[in-house]
Amino acid sequence: MSHGTADPREPDVLVHTEGRAGFLTLNRPRAINALTHAMVRTVDEALTAWEHDPAVETVVIRGAGERGLCAGGDIRAIHEDARAGGTATPAFWRDEYRLNARIARYPKPYVAFMDGIVMGGGVGVSAHGSLRVVTERSRIAMPETGIGFVPDVGGTHLLGRAPGELGTHLALTGAQAGAADAILAGLADRYVPSADLPALADALTGLPAAEAVARHARPAPAGELAARRSWIDACYAADTVEGIVERLSDSGVPEAKEAAGVLLGRSPTALKATLAALRRARRLDSLEAALNMEFRLSCAALGSPDLVEGIRAQVVDKDRDPHWIPATLAEVTEADTERWFAPHAAGELGLTAH
User: One biological process GO term for this chain (predicted)?
Assistant: First the structure.
């Protein structure tokens, strides 16, 4: 679904109201609308203005261009900052995670069009909303372990609460979920064909949000995860990443063996930190508590060799051949993992549930 090509003179977030709805259109289509710090601030300012504006009853977030809502944070900027040992990235995360918490608590309906690619930070600005719409084009993922990072933007909270071990599978492998799978995992609510999104946007200007979405919603085409639940739940319930890989390898299920192979290509340190974070997030009582934990993890990742190397291999040089340090799961000790959860020099996020 296109809102035209971005004019270089246009802002990176288009903010406008129509009827009873306020529209936020992420507008960096060439970068699949990757989030910058300025974009996070713009969205936050619009939410402040609309929260107290009785004329705005519903907020809608969507992406410009054909490729997706948002591919995540601006990875290249993070890579440059990490290499320079900079402080810009923790400042970005601080505002981004506060925005994620705000979206979850927003007092008006917040409708997210999760069309096309929705990854990392894109999940953060959509999956905490009150009405999350997916299409046949939706590809939703938290692919952080592939770049030596951990699911953030409240990802541990969302995936920790997915049925069974579906969230563990999605978090560790970074697998993409289509519409039905995203709904099953609790990352989305309703399915609307992408061709109907313009009509839905129009309906939201005049109708209450839930009514407008219900009118356009259809049953989602079948996904893959429901049929895989039995081996996913059995294999990912293991206590350690090594145990998970072993169960997947020994399961006799081709897709499970494939998942084991995927895990063995991911950052061993990031895998262990992610599993520990998911298990902890299940015991935390709020999204805010999970975001506070994730802020520590993200800052730890920023200072680790794997994040710089992972982004180099996947995004900068695109050789898809990262050299992780340590290189194997066996070399990552419990103490190594525990250090990721310690307070960081960047300080605490300090969000409280309300």
Answer: L-valine catabolic process
